[in-house]
Amino acid sequence: MRSHAKRLPSRPAILLLQLGVLIAFFLIWHVLTDTKILSPFFFGTPGAVLARTWADFASGVIWYHLGITLLETALAFVIGTVAGIAFGFWFARAPLVSIVFDPYIKAANALPRVVLAPIFALWLGLGIWSKVALGVTLVFFIVFFNVYQGVKEVSPVVLANARMLGASSRDLFRHVYLPSALSWVFSSLHTAVGFAMVGAVVGEYLGSAAGLGYRIHQAEGVFDTVGVFSGMLVLTIFVVLIDTAVTMIEKRLLHWRPQDTSGGQH
User: Of all helices (H) and strands (E), which one includes residue 196?
Assistant: First the structure.
């Protein structure tokens, strides 16, 4: 029986379409700045931004700052993810704890993170740990709520059958709760990667002596629009690379999930 769903393009075709969108964006940007519809002083030009980015990498001037930002991002991502998973499982498996702390969790999540940045700088100094702390506050809640929901979504029928077959608490965690939560975990990690870097960059922007956020802040201080856009371009590239790595790990760990067969034949 032929499926009525529309067949999706192949993976290479999708990559070409994505590349086409990127090229179109740069072409439109070039045309708008070249015709002075957008002022090159305020918006830079794609050629100048790409040339600056290439020069920074070729000279090696950016590697130190990039390394600092990536270290802060990695630490915030790992610490926030581990804490979010641990507390998500705990709250989902302990209803009383969840009920008692629910208003406090929601209140903490509602706090503007930018307000916390100066406080972390005061407590932890202007080194990497104040930036890591800010990133952790962003990552933690994303992972926490997804893990909590993933564990709560476990089918009661599956749980009852597993218990009837003599599954221990450890067996339930390994074979029921963990597989159920993994999809939710990786769904949150794709967002968490970006937020970990946002925390690092915002912290550097507000007070630091190194990092991509520091470079962007320095460029803004002298009205160097090209430098600002170059820093943003580097951030975007590395967020995409990290997200791609997360996707590869996700596919490896969740290989048991049914594959999407839309557009094929049944």
Answer: helix 178-206
